[in-house]
Amino acid sequence: MAETGRVLVVDDDETVRDVVRRYLEAGGFTVDVAGDGVTGLRLFAQRPADVVVLDVMMPGINGLEVCRRLRQASQVPVVLLTALGEEENRIAGLQLGADDYVTKPFSPRELTLRVASVLRRARMPGVAPVAPESRDGNLRLQPGARQATLDGAELPLTAREFDLLAFFLAHPGVAFSRADLLEKVWGWDFGDQSTVTVHVRRLREKIEPNPAKPMRIATVWGVGYRYDPVTS
């Protein structure tokens, strides 16, 4: 199978690292591994990965801090590995900009599919059928370039945030439930709907003048969310 990208796996459990590495390599990926956060950050600086698989609970610099530092310099897709019962850590990771998560114990095959999914979305135009360029007032989105700007300044959007914004812009005035958005933007038939909530919150922080009183991404109580253009 042809190489599909470079993945950095950061986990302090040697068995987990070995199993994940073997499955990812079987899926066509080139894999770097690190047993702690400091080594992971150093490897990423030396050989930037296309996707980072990151364990949350590690001694020393934990996965959340590694994710935060990665986000300071890169929009590389991040998939978190979290344990059952670590909902607060999952939410915190998503708030820091992680794109996806898999709960331990996990299927290595599922993880490989999730990695392929986030990489595909990061490399290709948005999942929504948008025009070559979409505009809404001072907001401009270019799917082909995977670029969004506000008042001419580029927005630091993760792959998921970009796809979510592209989907909203393609369907103005339509209310979607969180389950709908999970299916249409994430491609999941099921999953933790708080993922959508966190990504909407992060997107509001980047495109709304006052995220607490959003003008564009409206909450539709009892349903989900609706995108209201600021220009008609």
UniProtKB/TrEMBL annotation:
One of its GO terms (cellular component) is protein-DNA complex. Keywords: DNA-binding, Phosphoprotein, Transcription, Transcription regulation, Two-component regulatory system. Residues 6-119 form the Response regulatory domain. The modification 4-aspartylphosphate is found at D55. GO terms for biological process: regulation of DNA-templated transcription. Residues 131-229 form the OmpR/PhoB-type domain. InterPro entries: CheY-like_superfamily (IPR011006), OmpR/PhoB-type_DNA-bd (IPR001867), Sig_transdc_resp-reg_receiver (IPR001789), WalR-like (IPR039420), WH-like_DNA-bd_sf (IPR036388). Pfam families: Response_reg, Trans_reg_C. Residues 131-229 bind DNA. The keyword Amino-acid biosynthesis does not apply. GO terms for molecular function: phosphorelay response regulator activity; transcription cis-regulatory region binding. It comes from the Bacteria. PROSITE patterns: OMPR_PHOB (PS51755), RESPONSE_REGULATORY (PS50110). The keyword NADP does not apply. PANTHER family: DNA-BINDING DUAL TRANSCRIPTIONAL REGULATOR OMPR, REGULATOR OF RPOS. This is Response regulator transcription factor.
